[in-house]
Task: inverse folding
C-alpha cells in the first residue's frame, strides 16, 4: 500500500487526478491507497467515491507542510479522524501560523513523523 500519494491538488508536487492514481494502483495490484495531499483534502471525496467503484480501499489524510518542509503525515482512521485532521489544518490556515514540527495527538488518526534529517536527506 502506498501511504503518501499526492494528486493535482498538491500544487507543484502532484500532477495526476485522483482517478489516475487509482488506475495506477489497480494496474499495480494494490487494493488500498492513501491520498495525502499537501495541506488540503480537496480531492478526498471524489477519491473515496471512485476508489469504491474500483474495489480499492480509500485511505485519506494530509501531508502537513510549511512550504516545502514536511512536518508530518496523518491518515484518518475514521470519518471522525478525517474531521479532526481538517479542523487541525484549518486552525493553521486561518491563523497563517507555521504548522509545528511536533505532531499533535489526534485520537482517530495515524501519524507519521519525520524522524531525522541528515545533510538534506530525509529518513522516515
Result:
Amino acid at each position: 500500500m502506498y501511504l503518501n500519494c499526492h494528486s493535482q491538488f498538491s500544487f507543484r508536487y502532484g500532477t495526476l487526478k485522483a482517478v489516475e492514481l487509482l488506475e495506477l494502483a489497480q494496474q499495480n495490484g494494490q487494493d488500498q491507497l492513501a491520498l495525502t495531499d499537501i495541506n488540503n483534502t480537496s480531492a478526498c471525496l471524489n477519491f473515496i467515491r471512485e476508489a469504491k467503484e474500483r474495489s480499492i480501499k480509500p485511505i485519506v489524510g494530509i501531508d502537513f507542510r510549511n512550504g516545502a518542509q514536511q512536518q508530518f503525515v496523518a491518515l484518518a482512521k475514521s470519518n471522525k479522524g478525517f474531521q479532526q485532521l481538517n479542523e487541525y489544518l484549518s486552525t493553521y490556515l486561518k491563523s497563517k501560523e507555521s504548522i509545528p514540527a511536533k505532531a499533535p495527538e489526534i485520537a482517530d488518526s495515524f501519524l507519521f513523523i519525520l524522524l531525522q534529517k541528515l545533510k538534506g536527506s530525509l529518513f522516515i
Q: What stands out?
A: The longest strand covers residues 57-66.
